[in-house]
Every structure is written in C-alpha cells, then in structure tokens.
Specification:
six-stranded antiparallel beta sheet, disordered N terminus, 27% helix, Phosphorylase Kinase, domain 1, alpha+beta, 23 strands, single chain, 5 domains, Thrombin, subunit H, six-stranded antiparallel barrel, Jelly Rolls, 16 helices, elongated
Length: 585
C-alpha cells in the first residue's frame, strides 16, 4: 500500500498554535550575484527535519533559502539552511502561499547569509524583534498579522538636530521610536514652543493616519534616532485583512484625549472632551462639554474596528438617527452624532448618579418598593421605544442608570448593540440574552422583556439565575433550563413581582407577554399596595363620546337636574363630564 506523504516523513510534524516567526532569506534569481532578500514568514508546523511555511510572497519550488527561526521559549534565533520542496497558493487565504521546506545541515565551510548579504536592509533585524513585541502596533494585531506588519515597516535613521516632521506639511506616516529621543514643538505666531519629549517606544506623527490634515507640530531629533515608519497605505492594507488592528487607532485617540498637551486634538465638532469615564467592548466613553453653551455632555467614541467598517457604519448611522428621535423621561437623550479621527462619536446628555450594576455590587440591598419603581420606569421606556420600532437588545443592570432623584434612565439605547452588530459578536451580554438571541433567530421587543426579567431576578435575590461565567455553559442554560423560582431565594417575594419575573423569563418567546402593557398590570397593582404612585408612567389615552340633547324651553330645569345627576355618577366612576350649550336651532 502506498503511504501518504505525512506517513513517509522521518520526523512527525507538530502543528504550531500560534505559528512561530521565521526570517526567510532567499536568492531571488541566478543573476543576484549571491545577494539575498529577506522577509518574515509564519511556520505553520515543523519538525526536526522540515516545516510548512506561510508567506505573502510567491516563490519557486527550487528556491535556495535559509532560515532564522525565533524560539519563543529561549527568546533566541536559530539559523539553518533549507531546501524548498514545493510551493502552492493557499486556497482559503487570498494572497497567501504555502511553502514546504526541508532543513539541511550546513555544508563544510558554508556561510549562512545575514543582513550584510541583503540587497537593501529595511525590515527589522532579529535583534529588533524583542523591541517590536513590546510596541503598541504589535500589541493590537492578531498573531496572523505580525509578519505582514514586520514586513511593512521601514527603517528611518535620523541625525541629531534633524527635523523629520514639519508643522503644516502633508504627512501620511507614523513613526515608532526604537532608539534616541526627539522634541515636539508647536510654532505659534513665529514663536517655537517645545511641548513634549518622545523616547523609545513612543509614537510620533500618528495623527496623519487619523485626520488627513497637515502636521500639527514640528518634530526634531534630539539625538541620533532609529525610527520605524508605517504609512497610511500600509496600515490600511493590514487593517483591511485584520480589522481588529484598527483598535490601535482607538488607543491613539484615547491617549490623545487623556493628554493635556497644547497640541492635543480634543475638539469633536461643537464639543470638547474633558475626562475619560470608562471603556467598553466596543467604545470609549468621555465626559465633555458643549463649547459654546458650556453644557456637560457624555461623548461615546466607537472603536475603529467597527466604525471603519462601511456596512456597520451605514447601519449604525441609520439607527442612531432613529434613536435621536426618542424623547422619553426614562431614556437618555442622544443629542448629536459627529465624525472625527476616522471614527464616530455619539453625543448624549450627561447623567449624575450610578448604574444599577454599581448599586448591586456596592450599595445596600434594594427594597421591593425600589425594585418595583425601577422596573415600572424601565417598562415605560421600553414600551415607548418598542412602539417607535426600536429594540434595545442589551438590557442589563449596567445599562440602567439611577439618578439621585430616583429617576431611572436607560442608557446605550439602541447604541449599545447597533443594527448589524451581531456580526461582531457584541449584540447583548450573555448573562441577560434571550434564547432566541443566542440561537441567532429573528428577534423583537420580547428580548428586552426577557433581559429585564433576568435583571429583576438579580435585584430581588441578589444573584443571577445562572450565576456562572462560562459562555458555553451559560448559553446552554438559557436555551434548555427554566430559571429557578425566585421564591426559593426570597420566600417573602410579592406574588405580582414573582409572576412578572417568571413570565418575562419564559424560554419560548411566544409564552412571554407580547407587549409590556399586560406585563405591568401586576406591578401596578403591587405599586398601589405599597403606596407607590406610578400613574404618570402609563397614562391611559382619553376617549371622548358626544351626546346631544334636544329639548324645549319648558324642559330646561329637568335637563339641568339630569346633567347634575349624570355628572355625579361620572365623578364616582372617575370620568370627566363636560357640557356646553349649542346655538338654538
């Protein structure tokens, strides 16, 4: 029987996860006069005798190659000659090639090539790799993007005193400083003002990738320097294939906003960023103010991996405009949307207080009065939004904000998980996600009802019905297990609240209430029992009926008595009776 190729190998190959980094030297053609080219490649698998290599360069099967392979454990590079056995285009990855190589022992007296044998040394040396492993650009790319990034950056050497960035000029390159230092200076009205010093590991010229505007400062080398340049075109090429690399830009902007430097770009349209509030899985949130009105606002910056995706941006803008039309006392107001630094900013009203999440983690336990008040305010807001065709999709304690006046505001309304966000795996939080969300089925407002039921369970019992944190286990529980009866944890729970929680958390959406109106009736009755006035949250629409009485002058007194009697009866029923004479016919 003929053996398969992998069974005929002397040495079993081990799949490398993640792949190892290798530096491949190869002689491009016979006319190269012994000069080599070098570029970084991924070793997908390897053994003592050979390796499978992934590269962006198409190579001949008979190419003469040498390797320097990085041993991550030893933090050292090992050199070895090799022979290419076959080469093929990788079907699953566009623009990627596979190369099968066999390692060889060096021939007696054979010189293994180094950078002195290269035509042109531009890429990082193996000795530079440890430096690059600690830089911000490399920190933000997935493992598969490391070699494309290392092959893209270009060495720039600058002498002490040389100006390599000039204020007012066009620029499309950022620089990572490997050695030396430089001074950043702003020129104002003919005066040069030094504002900062940058050293090893710092990045300069980064705003060129964000604004497309002329350089905002001079940068002069204070000492001899070595810089690694990355152009906007190179950045886009990597980010197109590996979108998460764009989060690197988010970090640059966030760092810029946290700076108090004179050149800091802190203006977002009419608004000025002042302080950072927090970071989420897809955004960074700042406190700011309206520049002209001096009014405090909340500014949410979308991370670039989302904002720079055209389909996501289009869907997000469409939904954000709809959210901005919502006007309800229990929904945070979206005031504006701005585009700057190649991302989107959502401007919202600024709220004083704490989230329900913070209160559950750090505050005293909630009374039933507090729980009912929070739930009914949330229900009022969600009912209003659903009637407008908007579903929140990420109701949870972190998105219920408690003001000092006991008013509840739902935040991140619709912005928390914009339309199309499912593709980015951020549509909802697994502890509160309805089964149909997890199953990726079509969803409607009933998912908000489910999430609010889980939140109500947590407010009542002090813990979530499925308290674990393993995502797979949580998804299975939401899909297959009913929540525990909250009365097991709180035997004194009012029946109306218990019914609300159990009904809201039905796994089958058809067994939940189809709207919030029936669901809140029990809570309204409970509110009345405990003296909580919530009539303003669910005002009933007034209906009107007109009755015409035709009578003569002799019946005037009898009609007045009749109206007095009907009016008294109407008042007893809570109705309003209005009577007005009509012109004589």
């Amino acid at each position: 029987m003929m053996l398969r190729w992998k069974d005929r190998r002397r040495n079993t190959r081990s799949r490398l996860d993640p792949p190892e980094v290798g530096l491949l030297f190869h002689e491009p053609d016979e006319a190269s006069d012994g000069r080599f080219e070098a570029f970084y490649v991924d070793l997908v698998n390897r053994s003592l005798g050979g390796a499978l290599v992934r590269t962006r360069r198409e190579m001949r099967p008979d190419a003469r190659v040498f390797f320097q392979i990085y041993d991550a454990h030893a933090r050292a590079w090992v050199s070895t000659p090799a022979a290419a056995r076959w080469a093929a285009r990788e079907v699953e990855r566009e623009g990627s090639f596979l190369l099968g190589v066999t390692f060889r022992e060096p021939a007696p007296g054979q010189k293994i090539p180094g950078f002195e044998d290269l035509h042109d040394r531009k890429i990082p040396l193996p000795s530079d790799y440890e430096f690059f492993r600690k830089t911000k650009p490399l920190k933000y790319v997935c493992r598969e993007a490391v070699c494309p990034l290392l092959n893209s950056v270009t060495l720039k050497q600058v002498r002490a005193g040389e100006r390599f960035i000039t204020q007012g000029e066009e620029g499309d390159t950022l620089y990572v400083i490997q050695s030396g230092s430089c001074l950043v200076k702003v020129e104002k009205e003919g005066e040069i003002i030094p504002i900062s010093r940058c050293r090893e590991g710092d990045i300069v010229g980064e705003m060129a990738l964000l604004t497309g505007e002329p350089r905002s400062a001079h940068v002069d080398a204070e000492t001899d320097m070595e810089l690694w340049g990355l152009t906007q075109e190179q950045f886009e090429g990597i980010a197109q294939e590996f979108p998460d690399f764009r989060v690197f830009l988010t970090d640059i902007v966030a760092q810029r906003f946290s700076s108090r430097r004179e050149t800091a770009h802190r203006e977002i349209g009419k608004y000025l960023v002042t302080d950072i509030i927090g970071r989420g899985s897809y955004s960074v949130v700042y406190k700011g103010k309206h520049g002209a009105l001096n009014m405090p606002v909340c500014i949410k910056m979308l991370k670039h991996n989302l904002a720079m995706d055209p389909d996501f941006q289009r869907a997000f803008k469409q939904e954000a405009r709809l959210i901005a039309t919502l006007n309800h006392p229990n929904i945070v107001r979206v005031l504006d949307i701005e585009e700057r630094f190649r991302t989107l900013f959502i401007i919202m009203e600024y709220l004083e207080g704490v989230s329900l999440r913070y209160h559950l983690d750090h505050g005293p336990g909630l009374s039933y009065r507090d729980i009912v008040s929070i739930l009914l305010q949330a229900c009022s807001a969600l009912k209003y939004a659903h009637n407008k065709g908007v579903v929140h999709r990420d109701i949870k304690p972190a998105n219920l904000f408690l003001l000092p006046t006991n008013q509840v505001k739902i935040v991140d309304f619709g912005v928390a998980a914009p339309a199309g966000a499912e593709a980015y795996n951020i549509a909802g939080t697994i502890h509160y996600m309805a089964p149909e969300q997890i199953a990726c089925d079509p969803v409607d407002g009933r998912i908000d009802f489910y999430a609010l039921g889980i939140t109500a369970y947590e407010m009542t019992t002090g813990e979530r019905p499925y308290p674990g944190n393993d995502p797979d286990e949580l998804m299975t529980l939401h899909l297959r297990e009913d929540i525990p009866d909250p009365a097991q944890k709180r035997p004194d729970i009012p029946e109306e609240l218990r019914t609300f929680i159990i009904t809201a958390c039905r796994r089958d959406p058809d067994e939940r209430e189809q709207s919030f109106s029936p669901a809140v009736k029990g809570l309204q009755r409970l509110a009345a029992k405990i003296g909580l006035n919530v009539d303003h949250l669910f005002p009933e629409k007034m209906k009107m009926r007109t009755v015409h009485l035709f009578y003569g002058d002799s019946e005037q007194t009898a009609v007045e008595e009749l109206l007095e009697e009907i009016g008294g009866r109407a008042r007893e029923m809570g109705l309003v009776l209005k009577a007005a004479p009509l012109p004589d016919s």
